[in-house]
Amino acid sequence: MGKTEIKTKATEVDAADFIAAVPDVRRREEAEVIDAIHRRVTGLEPRMWGPSIIGYGSYDYVYDSGRSGTMCRAGFSPRKAAMTLYLMGHYSDRQDEADALFARLGRHKTGKSCLYINKLTDVDLDILEQLVRLSWDVMNARYPK
After folding, report:
1. Which residue in 29, 24, 68, 34 sits closest to 54, CA to CA?
2. What local confidence, expressed as pLDDT, does residue 7 receive?
3. H/E element holding 62?
4. Would 135 be classed as within a structural domain?
5. How far apart are alpha carbons 12 and 34 in whole angstroms?
6. DSSP element (H, E) containing 130
């Protein structure tokens, strides 16, 4: 199988500069809150991944197909439509714990590895931080540093 070029890679763009340039004031302020949560949970400074993902840490993966790459362990993107958090790891044997937290989070939508929040005032920030921590713990167990 031919190697596919991974589009989302770490860049040299400064994450703080990226956040400061978010055009919508509310979304920019929300990005600062989400950045602070990730810094507390991970203990790491953020890096930009691709043009719009603010990521923390990294891990190397290999799919069954043989495709491999490197991606951030945790991250988010202050998108216009919704604040998008990348909660990697699919929670493995901790799915019940994740489901209980999502049930208490507040208004949100989810995708395969994404959490979409329209406004941070719609969610419980303590629960959100617990979800970020759960994802971080699962990723660190699955992909030891």
Report:
1. 34
2. 64
3. strand 59-62
4. yes
5. 20
6. helix 125-142
Domain ranges, residue 51: 15-140
For residue 41, which of 106, 137, 142 has the smallest C-alpha distance? 137
φ/ψ (deg, to 5) at 134: -60, -50
Query: pLDDT tens digit string along 83-139?
Result: 999 987 556 788 889 999 999 999 999 988 899 999 999 999 999 999 999 999 999
Number of domains in the chain: 1
The structure's pTM equals: 0.89
For residue 67 the two structure tokens come to: 């495709």
pLDDT above 90 as % of the chain = 69
Q: How far apart (Å, rounded) are the C-alpha atoms in residues 127 and 144?
A: 25
How far apart, in whole angstroms, are the C-alpha atoms of residue 15 and residue 53? Answer: 9
Dist CA 63 CA 44 (whole Å): 26
